[in-house]
Specification:
Two copies of one chain form a homodimer.
Chain A: H1 3-46, H2 54-70, H3 75-95
Chain lengths: 96, 96
């Protein structure tokens, strides 16, 4: 293996450590987020509100695209990730 | 609308503000994460490494499940969200 290849693999390992640190932060925030959405689900059930709220979701998705653009993140990528988060939450609310 | 219903709607609005704050944090971290994965993609391309790395992915998914459990988050939920993140990243690497 060449020196350049060695350097590349070291840099790759370094980048991956950085990604792992961010993933731990993401998990921490997701944990807090699912805590709040579980409370939302409970509240909706107690007050016979529908588990899904298309107006709120549309508002969230628009805000996410806006925040993503501000963070230099492709809005479509951000929306795809949040689609997975929101779908998981809605599924959970239906199961409550 | 009853008082209880009013109180519930106020609480719902409060919970949603909390969710919006966490979403802004998630977007910020996702922005940093996609910055690092874009660098990984560039490095892989320059050194003719394959865009997808099943061993690394399996390791990430196992770690995510472990971190999720530690954060009181359902590991399956966390993995579903990260599946979306990783798939988006892999798609991007292939397009680079």
């Amino acid at each position: 293996m060449s020196d350049t290849q060695d350097t590349a693999l070291l840099r790759l390992a370094e980048l991956r450590r950085g990604i792992d640190v961010l993933d731990a932060q993401l998990i921490g925030i997701l944990g807090q987020r699912f805590g709040l959405t579980a409370e939302v689900g409970k509240l909706k059930k107690e007050h016979s509100l529908p588990p899904q709220d298309p107006a709120r979701e549309a508002q969230q998705m628009a805000r996410i695209a806006e925040l993503a653009t501000g963070a230099g993140l492709d809005p479509a990528l951000a929306q795809r990730v949040f689609r997975a988060i929101i779908d998981t939450v809605v599924q959970n609310h239906k199961q409550v």
